[in-house]
Amino acid sequence: MSELERVWAKSPEQGSGRGELLTEHLSLTRDALETVRTRLGRIPSAPERFWTWALLACLFHDPGKIPDGFQRMVGNPPPKQPWGRRHEIYSLGFIEHVLAQVSEEERIWVGLGALTHHRPLTGGERSIRKECTALLSPEQVQQHFGPINERAATELAVWLADQAGVAPPQGPLTAEQLAHDTYRLLHRVRDEWEDESPDDAAGMAAVLLQGAVTLADHVASAHSELLIDHPLPPDYPDMIRWSFLAQGRTLFSHQWKAEHVHGHTLLRAPTGRGKTEAGLLWAATQITDLTDDGRGLPRLFYTLPYLASINAMSTRLGEDLDDPRLERIGITHSRAAAFHMTHASCDEHDEPDGDHGEDRAGHSRKGTAQRRRASRAIAKANASRLYRELLRVTTPYPLLRGALGGTTHSATLLDAANSVFIFDELHAYDPQRLGMVLAMMRQWEQLGGRIGIISATIPEALEEAIGEVLEGTLHCVEPDDAHPWPVRHRLALREPHLTDPKSLQEIEQSLRSGKSVAVIANNVADASFLYEQLAPVARDLFGPDAALLLHARFKNQDRAEIERKLQGRYGAGACPRRPGLLVATQVVEVSLNVDFDLLHTSAATLEALIQRFGRTNRLGWLNEPAPVIVHHPHYAPRHNGPDEFADKVYPKAPTQLGWEILTRHDGRCLDERLFTHWLNEVYSSDWGSEWRAQVEDARKLFHDSFLTFLQPFDDNAELARAFDGMFNGIDGILEGDEAEYRRALSRAERTPGEQPGTGRLLASQLLIPLPDYARSCGRWAKDLDVLVIDATYDSEYGLRSMQRATDPRRPTYVPGELV
């Protein structure tokens, strides 16, 4: 056995007596990088030699693990002993020594990729700056990293030269020579990169290089895979035509137009008229265009604003693209693992959930089966986090984190290069988040991306904002005038509030007429009150399952069960249609593919109302337009300021403007083509000018704060905290669930071979989404890393009330202000 075959890169896995060899890990990382290059292809904004630098950086990222101290740290030989040195610094010596024939500029780029694949180069305690600055001479480098096996080092240098395709270095590699080479390249890299990047283009290239090395390293370390078989095939247009033909259908005009766009697009089309298929037809064309241009295998990101809508879209795409088990379609949001667990079923090795016996280890069989499903769900979610799939359904926020760069997020930015983005319901974002998305759209375009926006309701003000940030042409696609938009709804306005006795009486009459009725309130308090009044009527008429309440303040496990029942009873296309009652807040607006006979809703902004209308007579199958009845809201200030909001949720100005427009159409059937004109009227007002300014301010702030890449290797912990601070909200658990939450996390409950994080996933089923100010209402359990609240809760109504914390000056939960 050669000396090199005794050098490890990783500790042994449980049950194994040998760690992963250093040459094995370097080979795996190089191979992973080759797959990354295949998937990304030529990146427009990257230097011509980018992939060569990335390949060499992957090959040379870990030779610094050769010192005896590192080997003892990974248990070679046992027992493991701490070392406390950054191996990536010592890897520079092998780059300088083996690649001596390569230009110094290229060695600096390769060294930069290797040096920054674990820690920031500069900044706080997490950075390697302190260790780097302490190495003031080659002698100090040699003393710092300690003794090495010089025969193994020499063999490694020869092996690396062979892998890199360069002539092998002559003679043995000594510890003294390696320390000298490390010192020299380290100081050249620091001189070039420790302060600001040479220019913007170099800063971007550096972040992408860091992303390439960290991505390949993570894939190799996890022994994961990156798929190269796209679930959206080139012949998708032919597939959908044949599918439609079998159903006696043809493509809508806007679908045909979308397929033939080459570049960015904005698609307006009515709900239920194939927007999703149109978006996929457009995406298939862009993927073909980019592939033919040498830009790899483009990822397709289908983005939506709400987690529930992502879950529903993932299921739909799985069915439409012949991947019902979602093996090739990824989901990337904060609760992706919970979605996979909900949809998992026992495999042949699981015991049925109904078996309450014990296994040999003393665990309940039901609990063991749950943990197995949770472990598989964690594995799927982790694979998506490692960018496994070429098609991913997501919110924009995981993609926005690419702007943070660094060892954690640079791979996200890299993976977005040469990608295709579909933004569904972009109008749903508030000005701050919309500005962030617009800033990233320009970044993604510069990285070779194509942007597609699809919606039934995009005002011209938003269209203009998108067009201004994109350098390429934004092609607008709409149905032909010859194809009328559907007339599915008849509008009726009511002055009494949705909770008024007169409104309750009218809703009850609708139920007694045998209708399926959706009642959508603006806040939780109103929704709970309405449900309490109306649910007994619906149950008396149609049975115990005929009434459901849905809002954002349910435990995750209870909300999943409510959504399952809701989809089962009121899913679009269900036949026969079943009567009953849903009371909900805005969470239902674009979250589920449901269909009701009649709608009662509190007035909100026009965008929100149009989405609510879309849950009624969704497919247009009713014999006549369905009534959509809008009730005047209460205007009142929130607890934290004087401005008034509709039911303490929606800003007063746009809600009032929308109400004034609706009054002109009261009693009429609604032509959905007019919706865009209505929105244009709102956005051309003084309020619209303020909205446009807020969006632009947010865009500029995000660009200036996150997208300049002037210091690409500085510790970005502060940036990350600033980013997270833009997204308010927190999850909490009930005091009564604390013991069960703790039990789920317990090591004693773990089963053999389960994925890390399985217990936390099971525990997450007890979490309740809360507003950010709820932090002051509970206590932080440090050992569990979760907020614990004293609250009234049940699985039917969700969170009813929250008790004040011990300090009476602290705020308490106000359900009337939450949606």
TrEMBL record:
Residues 15-219 form the HD Cas3-type domain. PROSITE patterns: HD_CAS3. One of its GO terms (molecular function) is RNA binding. Pfam families: Cas3-like_C_2 (PF22590), Cas3_HD (PF18019). GO terms for biological process: defense response to virus. Residues 363-373 have a biased composition (Basic residues). The keyword Nucleotide-binding applies. It comes from the Bacteria. Its EC number is 3.1.-.-, 3.6.4.-. Keywords: Antiviral defense, ATP-binding, Endonuclease, Helicase, Hydrolase, Metal-binding, Nuclease, Nucleotide-binding. Residues 1-20, 346-373 are annotated as: Disordered. In the N-terminal section; belongs to the CRISPR-associated nuclease Cas3-HD family. In the central section; belongs to the CRISPR-associated helicase Cas3 family. This is CRISPR-associated endonuclease/helicase Cas3. It comes from Nocardiopsis mwathae.
